[in-house]
Amino acid sequence: MTKKKNNIILVIPAFLIIGAAVGLQTKGVIKQTLIGLIVGIVIYFFLKYRNKKINSN
Fold it and tell me: How many CB atoms lie within 10 A of CB 23?
């Protein structure tokens, strides 16, 4: 079996882009982009912790 790639880091730029897209629609680009960045980082660490917990069992 081939080893599965761990592309969990791609969550951060995805939320950054989603935040920028929402910001373009609501006229608050910088604010929404920063919120997207923060949410992306939080979800990244949550998924990293969850994967570590699942793989240890």
Answer: 18
Residues 49 and 56: their CA atoms lie apart, in Å, by: 11
How far from each other are the two terminal CA atoms of the chain, in whole angstroms? 20
Number of H helices, E strands in the chain: 2, 0
Range of the domain at 46: 29-57
For the chain, the average pLDDT equals 89
Number of domains in the chain: 1
| Cβ-contact 34, 19 below 8 angstroms | yes
* DSSP H or E run through 14: helix 11-26
Q: Cα–Cα distance between 31 and 50 in angstroms, integer?
A: 29
Global pTM exceeds 0.85: no
